[in-house]
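EI: anyone free to look at a 467-residue chain?
SC: sure, send it
EI:
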Amino acid sequence: MAAQTTETIPNSESIQDEKKGPIFKEIDADEAVNEATEIESACMNCFKTGVTRLLLTKIPFFKEVVLMSFKCEFCGFENNEIQSASEIQKKGVHIKLEVKSSGDLNRRVVRSDYTLVKIPEVELEIPSQSQKGEITTVEGIIDRTIRGLSQDQDKRRIEHPDAAGAIDAYIERLNNLKYLKTNFTLELEDISGNSFVENPLAPAHDPNCKTTHFTRTKEQDELLGLYDANEVQEGEKKILKEDKPLLKPIPEGEWTLEDLHGEVLQFQTLCPECRSPCETNMKLTKIPHFKEVVIMATVCDVCGCKTNEVKSGGGIEDKGTRFEVRIDSKEDLTRDVLKSETCNLLIPELDCEVGPSALGGRFTTVEGILTAMKDQIEGNDVMFQDSTDEAFKNRFKGFIEKFEKILSLEMPATLVLDDPAGNSYVQSLSDTEEADAKLQVTKYERSYEQNEELGLNDIKTENYEEQ
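SC: here you go
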């Protein structure tokens, strides 16, 4: 248990007072001492005053964390703790991994405090918030469970021999999984969306692991401390004991559609890289031959990060849309592309697949999409190159070389955009609105799983006001 602090953790502005820079920096042993913040804290051993040191940093390919180290000079008590500081994702994540080989046992696993872990074959279930978040492996999860069950077994064998025998039998079942005497399934369900299982075949598709995202229930949002606007206003009314909420809704009719088309709106947000406060500019516009979209751009004055995102201004279409673009000339690279936040990207020649959440929504060109995919994969190469074998590194290097050949038109390829929501768009180079010879557009009926991920299966369109 961490030491009890007597002062609140300083906010982002106070941390940046002396030196302007990112709040969460990459781990650097040389700068860690200078960047740490010291706070007087009560020692939980002798109850005298000790010192807690806080360091805000980023773990590569993981997330932002707060490292805390406490030491008491009077009794020598020490304590170290790590807490997550990353934002909660828009949706929860469910990961299902089929463990069939020793390589699957060595996959790295990132799990947050809110991760529910299941192995159905042995009826193992580790509830969320029962353990701290960690970076481990599939084998590490089993090992930690075995260590927890093995505690006090000697005492149980004397006082409760029947219970001890049942636990020994269950530990044997877990060891069978550990030594792969039988295949099994590992399931992670994280309502915060911050869990992850390594793909050893990256950047190629992972055939043994399936990742889906789901919309949280109201109870799950409240567990994460998320509340809707009506609940916030009700809470403010109770606190202020008056009928005027702090957050007032915009009166209907104050902003017309014409006003929104001509106005650039701004709102406060946090930088996706360093988590410093910055502003996002937002504008509603219309793409010819398509529909209205919302364009958002963010520039961070602290770390210089620039992001652009596009969201559909309309609803979900009746059918999903799949675009297949053949790339073998400079003209093909110049097509306009609108990728929505629900669109998957695929390059069959490279066996490369990028999920919808990796690049978000954006309005760019075919060349821009390919460059963004390449930069996304290269930017995460610390995951691929850290303590991995040479064969894996060479395979990844060869993949990047093939990507560069596609961009330089030395290797023909096909770019596939598969959007179940139907909110993506690829420009046709023909004089009419029909697709040209190198562009194939297919409309398809969504599967139940795709409707579930879009939150459509639970929508009630008739008598929806009834409970």
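EI: Residues 161-178 form the longest helix (18 residues).
SC: 👍
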